Amino acid sequence: MAGKYLYWGNGTWSATAHGNSLKGHQAGINCVRFARDGATVTWELPTMSIRGILFGERVLKYQGSMIFRDEAHDLVCDVSIDADAEGLLHSLLHLRRRRREAGPTHDAVRGSLRRGERILDSLSGSWLSHLQWERGVGGGPGGGPHSIWDAHKSPQARVQARSEGVLPSDARFRQDLVELRKGNLSSAQIAKMDLEQGQRSDHHLRSKGGAQD
C-alpha cells in the first residue's frame, strides 16, 4: 500500500423536512487502513440538521453518535456529538447551575475508548475547535490531558485551487462567497439570502410552466 493510509467507504443519503429545518443522515461504512500495522478503523457518520432552509439564518449542526471500531487491536470508541444539547425542561432545571459554571461547550463531543469492558480513556472537546484525551493514553510519559486536534494549531493541508480556464459559473465567484472571503459577514448573509430567493423564484416559475424536478 502506497502512502501512510488508505481510505474508502460508501454512503446513501436520506433526509426529512420539518417546516424550516432539514435533518439528514449519510448511512454507510467509512474505513481507513493504516500502512504501519495494517489495522483498519471503521465508523459511520452522525446525523446532520440544518435550520433556516426557507428563511432566516442558516445553521448546520451535527448530532447523534458515532462508533469507531479497530478489530485488530480490540478497540471501540463510542462518541456522542452535541452531547450538551438540552431540552426546555432540562434547561430550566439546570439554569442556576449553568450560571455558576462556564457553561457547556457548543457542539460538544464526548466519548470513551474501551477494550472490552475496560475504559482506557475519555474523549472531550468540540467538533468546531478541539479534541483531547483526558488521560493521555498514547500521548507520551506523564499522562494527563493530551490534545489530538486543535483547529487553531493543528497543521492544515491546503488544496491549490485552479485559477486558469475557470468558467464564470464557478462557485468561487458567488457574491456571498466573495463577501465572506473579505470578512464582510453581514454582506455575505444578505447576498446568500438574495441568491436563495432567486433560486426559489426560478423554481416557482419552472413549476408553473410545467417543468418537472
TrEMBL record:
Stretches of Gly residues bias are at 136-145
Organism whose genome encodes this protein: Prototheca wickerhamii
Name the domain of life.
Answer: Eukaryota
GO CC terms: cytosol; membrane
Q: Which Gene3D superfamilies match?
A: 2.40.160.120
Q: Name one GO molecular function term.
A: sterol binding
**Biased composition regions of type Basic and acidic residues, renumbered to the chain:** 194-204
Coiled coil stretches, renumbered: none
What name goes with this protein?
Answer: Uncharacterized protein
SUPFAM superfamilies from the entry? Oxysterol-binding protein-like (SSF144000)
Record region (Disordered)? 135-155, 194-213
**What PANTHER family does the entry give?**
OXYSTEROL-BINDING PROTEIN 9, OXYSTEROL-BINDING PROTEIN-RELATED
Q: Name one Pfam family in it.
A: Oxysterol_BP
